Amino acid sequence: VLREGVGVIIASVMRNHPRSVDPSIKSNNLLNNVLAMQEAVRHGAHEAILLNHRGELAECSQSNLFGVRDGIVRTPPLDAGLLEGVTRNLIFDVGADLGVPIRAEIMRETDLGELDELFITSTTREIIPVVRVGDQTIGTAFPGPITSRLLHGLRARAQTMTRPVAT
Question: DSSP character for 91?
Answer without folding.
Answer: H
